[in-house]
Amino acid sequence: MKRQPCRRAILAALATLAFGAPAHGEGDLVRGAQAARACMECHSFAPGRHMTGPSLAGVWGRKAGTAAGFARYSDALKRSGLVWDERHLDEWLTKPAAVVPGNAMDFPGIADSRTRADLLAYVKAVSSGRVSAPDRGLPNLKEADAASQVTAIRYCGDTYRLTTADGKTHAFWEFNLRFKTDGSAEGPPAGKPVLLGTGMRGDRAAVVFSRPEEISGFIRRQCA
Ligand code: HEC
């Protein structure tokens, strides 16, 4: 890893001038929680709740690439030998691709050192259990309401027609409906897929099944 202490010191001094606050020091938890929203698209802080990225529960002080049960680490991260202390997390969040070339986290980084300090304070507080993070991850699909419980799927022409447990039918152009699986503890019960809106405009959605084997058996080719 290349280190540029002089440049870093100058940048830190500039940051101090620009923001009127020390570049190092205790971050602000409220601002940190705000900044963490960008992470929650891909990470949860709930233990064992892996999404695109691994659960960040207990990440502080842990060896990189070792969250139990996360199966999609890049070889690059697993081989990095990093331990997630303050310095390494700060460098990672500045520019992940520079710290571990070839890693799988599709995130450009956070240039502002003050924002990183706030975020790190938050990650540390959540990781140690001092603050509990709202789980903005996926909803628990075992608790889906009748309006989202799919009871039948018919396919005709280019259209899927879904019936939900509240008796309503929903029509989707076949290209706008995705079939997904969630085999985790929060996934749907066996044989009871759940409808989730996935776009801003309501024309796109996903049906989440508990297992891939259920999908084609559930869909009937039927025009009526
Ligand atoms: C687009 C999805 C995405 C976003 C956004 C994202 N991450 Fe990640 N993150 C990942 C993935 C995927 C990995 C695994 C990388 C690998 O294996 O190379 C990862 C890995 C990590 C790791 C290493 C975990 C470990 O167990 O070694 C940390 C720490 C981390 N991310 C923190 C963050 C923080 C903090 C943010 C918000 C500023 C963030 N990530 C934003 C997808 C994302």
UniProtKB/TrEMBL annotation:
GO terms for molecular function: electron transfer activity; heme binding; metal ion binding. Residues 27-127 form the Cytochrome c domain. Residues 1-23 form the signal peptide. Keywords: Electron transport, Heme, Iron, Metal-binding, Signal, Transport. Gene3D superfamilies: Cytochrome c-like domain. This is Cytochrome C. It comes from Paraburkholderia madseniana. The lineage of its organism: Bacteria, Pseudomonadati, Pseudomonadota, Betaproteobacteria, Burkholderiales.
